[in-house]
Amino acid sequence: MGTKKLLLAALRGERVERVPFWFMRQAGRYLPEYRQLRAEANGFMELCLNPNLATEVTLQPLRRFNMDGAILFSDILMVPHGLGVRVWFEEGEGPKLEALDPSGRLPGFDRATFSARLAPVYETVARIAARLSAETTLIGFAGAPWTVATYMIEGGSSREFARTKSWAFQDPVAFDRLIELLVDATIEHVSAQIAAGAEAVQLFDSWASALPARAFERWSIKPTQAIVQALRTRHAGVPIIGFPRLAGAGYEAFVAQTGVDAVSLDPTVPLAWARSTLQSKVALQGNLDPQMLVVGGDPMISEAVAILESLAHGPFVFNLGHGVVPETPPEHVAQLSETVRAFRVSR
Ligand code: 1CP
Fold this sequence. Notes:
- The structure is a single chain.
- By secondary structure, this protein is an alpha/beta fold.
- The protein has a single domain (6-342), classed as Alpha-Beta Barrel (TIM Barrel), CATH 3.20.20.210.
- Helix content is 51%, strand content 12%.
- It has helices at 6-11, 32-40, 44-49, 51-65, 78-82, 111-117, 119-131, 145-154, 162-170, 172-196, 213-234, 250-258, 271-278, 290-295, 297-311, 330-342, and strands at residues 69-71, 87-90, 94-97, 137-143, 200-205, 240-244, 262-264, 283-288, 316-320.
- Strands 1-4-5-6-7-8-9 form a 7-stranded parallel sheet. Strands 2-3 form a two-stranded antiparallel ribbon.
- The longest helix is centred in the middle third of the chain and has 25 residues, at 172-196.
- The chain is globular and about 60 Å long.
- It starts with 5 loop residues before the first helix and ends in a 5-residue tail after the last helix.
- Coproporphyrinogen I is lined by residues 24-29, 38, 44, 71, 73, 75-76, 94-95, 141, 143, 157, 204, 206, 323.
């Protein structure tokens, strides 16, 4: 084994002696120590933009569960913030943004201004890197352009994405320009995280499933491919994980065309299909249903073992199929971590 970082090795497709794991949203409201810091901070944006607090929140779950990966504590809405869009969080409601208007002007992308606005995020990455053990991989991330565009156009969370689709379907060429802006900003944002010490990165296309098949190619696959190409040139050897959540059969084209090193599977992806169709091309990550972690005990353990038995013969990182939910008892996360850590592949 050349490296002690099992997660990094697995993402590169190397054989490892045990399945590495981390959990999407492993920092957050299910942890009492998070809720306490969150209450002391002056809002969620402040938590993300204060390197002291963001470093501490990133490290909180590792102290309890010692995952193989630490994911930078931040949010996908940092990119709009870097572009000068006003972003805030309303208690109990979630993120709000000053909404873009199809007839208005797009924000401009000025690299120096963008980097200056997001400098605290990169400072956080550097501080985390300095404090991680030699076995832990630091994961940076960004939202994929389509998912970030939905928040910018809807002005927050959405179910139907009506404003976004109406813009994209009526004037696809104008919508391309917003996606291109977000491709440039995302390349810059992820590059800066890597320069500061991120060792692997994940692109969250959380709302990929809202796109019809042809639009999925144009606004999920193509932009991801452009980001992957640029990152490869600037930072060879840094694994890139794609997460086209709920993309169904679209996962196959996503893997074939984007050039990602790994894909994160949502819980609906059949394990046998993922193994036979995707795993010879990329490393897989996933895909326990986050509600299983709320249930805990035998149902959770037998499901986790089924996932491990299906996918651990090839390059694999154990994770959830989406983020940890606030109702999750921390003891269940401990139980799951021990289950994955103890699992051995039978060869
Ligand atoms: O009230 C609070 O304390 C804020 C809750 C919270 C947290 C803990 C938000 C608001 N963001 C985060 C952190 C966060 N967001 C991380 C941290 C690292 C980790 O431990 O994993 C990450 C990776 C994200 C990414 C993110 N933000 C995504 C992509 C992943 C996903 O879950 O699909 C999305 C869609 C967002 C937007 C967002 N930010 C916050 C909320 C509540 C939401 C989702 C709202 C919605 O459903 O539309």
